[in-house]
Amino acid sequence: MTNWQQRRNIPTNNQTIYRSSDAPSLKREESIKKQSERKKVEVKEEKKEETVQELTPEMQEKLIKLAELLLPNWNVNVQSIEVIQGGQMALVWKFMTDEGPKCLKRIHRPEKKALFSIHAQDYLAKKGMRVPAIIPNRDGHLYTKHGPFLFVVYDWIEGRPFDLTVPTDLQWIMKGLADYHTESVGYTPPPAAPIFSKLGKWPKHYIKRCQQMESWKLIAEKSPDDPFCQLYLNEIDTYIASGRDTLTLLQQSHYPEWVKQCKQKPNLCHQDYGTGNTLLSNDQIWIIDLDTTTFDLPIRDLRKVIIPLMGDTGTWDQELFDLMLASYEERSPLTSEQKNVMYIDMLFPYELYETASERFGRKNEIMPEELMAAFQYEERKKGHLSQFL
């Protein structure tokens, strides 16, 4: 899985949703096959890179010793320790006890933000939501501080990842998201943890991204012989204007009123929901990695799940869209006004922005064909969503 795919929480085995009734063209089948083979190569190379650069024997030993230093803070009988994730961002260990496997995790967030998400997870687990229960340390605290970071011990959830090429798995994912939104209403962080909220901040979010896309033109102008840069300069103005039009639509919609209502009884948004942070265990969906959770309108998560997945199919699949939305609404129905806000937010050229950011912001090599595909996807998406507004 590439870093870009990890950030967007998208699967790497096959990006297109199949149903038994589908009859894709030979051209589409060949495209999917080629894409799948390319993803397999990327996954193999990424795993090799992680082994060499992130989890060398020396690093493994260092991380094991860190866990051995920390775990006596909890009343657990540790039998063995395994490093699961050892990158610069997250540190995760799986350790065996006489009560089964547990998870030790370093929260790679500033302490105040970490407190917000830790107490949110504890609230949801105690309410019966299927998130890993936090095991207090010997002092009764939900975390142990070591250096600038907070460390937490959870129950280890055994299960399999969801496969979004399987309609039933896709329905599980969407219903789990709806449950997360509805069950989180009522969470109030403790006095020591500040409130983190994105309620009402979408207009600034749009403006900032439009400004960034505008500023990247200055970078592109410095590379007149670069096909990616020239394609960007030739096409981007239309999409910057589209982004600004979306801002106008948002401000004129039900958005301000919905934000006002939600501030009275806010729900949590996961912000990183998808196949990487969900598991199927004993015919139940479990949601993990709540580190980035915040208060916001529920449709923020819907957009962050649906739009990247639709983009990865290379087209706009209305049947797929309807299936995902219907599955979500089985648990948490949306009003027509709320759906209108969702459609407006989905209009913003997020996928195009992400592609350009990968090149100009993160300095990664992106082929001009990927940029062209992003332009084409935004056009298809706009054509389909506009009919709902």
Mind describing the biggest β-sheet?
A: 5 strands, antiparallel
Strand order of the largest sheet: 1-2-3-5-4
Radius of gyration of CA atoms, rounded to a whole number: 22 Å
Identify the overall geometry: globular
CATH structural fold name of the largest domain: Aminoglycoside 3'-phosphotransferase, Chain: A, domain 2
Q: Tell me the domain tally.
A: 2
Order of helices and strands: HHHEEEHEEHHHHEEEEHHHHH
Uncertain residue ranges:
1-53
CATH class of the largest domain: Alpha Beta
How large is the count of helical segments?
13
Q: Give the class from helix and strand content and strand pairing.
A: alpha+beta
Q: Which architecture of the largest domain does the CATH hierarchy give at level 2?
A: Alpha-Beta Complex
Q: What is the rounded distance between the termini?
A: 36 Å
- Average pLDDT level: 87
Would you write up a description of this structure?
The chain is α+β, with helices and mostly antiparallel strands and 389 residues long. Helix content is 54%, strand content 12%. The chain has 13 helices and nine strands. A hairpin with a 2-residue loop joins strand 2 and strand 3 (100-107). Helix 11 runs antiparallel to helix 13. The longest helix is centred in the N-terminal third of the chain and has 29 residues, at 26-54. It is globular. The two termini are 36 Å apart.
Secondary structure topology:
Elements: H1 3-8, H2 26-54, H3 57-70, E1 78-86, E2 91-97, E3 100-107, H4 111-127, E4 144-146, E5 149-155, H5 167-183, H6 202-221, H7 227-251, H8 255-264, E6 268-269, E7 278-281, E8 284-287, E9 294-295, H9 299-312, H10 318-331, H11 336-347, H12 350-361, H13 368-386
Helix pairs in contact: 5-10, 6-7, 6-12, 7-11, 7-13, 9-11, 11-13, 12-13
